[in-house]
UniProtKB/TrEMBL annotation:
Transmembrane segments: none
Domain HTH marR-type: 13-144
Pfam families: MarR (PF01047)
Protein name: MarR family transcriptional regulator
Organism, scientific name: Novosphingobium cyanobacteriorum
PROSITE patterns xref list: HTH_MARR_2 (PS50995)
UniProt cross-references to SMART domains, sorted A to Z: HTH_MARR
Domain of life: Bacteria
Classification via InterPro entries: ArsR-like_HTH, HTH_MarR-typ, MarR/SlyA-like, WH-like_DNA-bd_sf, WH_DNA-bd_sf
């Protein structure tokens, strides 16, 4: 019986989890200079984009969409509110529920950022739109499978 030789190069490159992690770090480096002129971070950008698609979401709905726990999401929302981009209001039927909305400044910022950031990110990937969509669909399916304990 012969031993399989170890792959050359960085052994971490053999781990899918490391490749996804490293790609995430690279995305952060691409997004930072694109978002700095708007005065927002990448997580704040995601929250604004998610809120721009549907007004009046609850904090928990936004957390589910962004896959963030409330201890991470609450400070993010508070910073967006302090910047005048987001409003928080108590639900009229259930005071325990907090609903989120974009201010006009938040809506304008989201529209402006969505008008330029995705195209710049696409350029940075060096991929065409179809290849990027296939990769995104694969990664979304992978994430869904990993979040579903029944799938394991």
């Amino acid at each position: 019986m012969t031993e399989t030789p170890a792959p050359a190069g960085n052994p971490l490159d053999q781990f899918l989890c490391f490749s996804v992690y490293a790609a995430g770090l690279a995305f952060n480096r691409v997004y930072k200079p694109l978002l700095d002129p708007f005065g927002i971070t990448y997580p704040q950008y995601l929250a604004l984009v998610a809120l721009s698609s549907r007004d009046g979401q609850t904090v928990s709905e936004l957390g589910e969409r962004l896959h963030l726990e409330s201890n991470t999401l609450t400070p993010l929302i508070k910073r967006l509110e302090a910047a005048g981009l987001v409003t928080r209001t108590r639900d009229k039927q259930d005071e325990r529920v907090v609903r989120l909305g974009l201010t006009s400044a938040g809506s304008d910022l989201a529209k402006t950022a969505l008008g330029c950031v995705p195209g710049e990110v696409l350029k940075a990937t060096g991929m065409d739109q179809a290849a990027l969509e296939r990769l995104n669909n694969s990664l979304a399916a992978l994430g869904a499978a990993l979040r579903d304990p029944a799938a394991r």
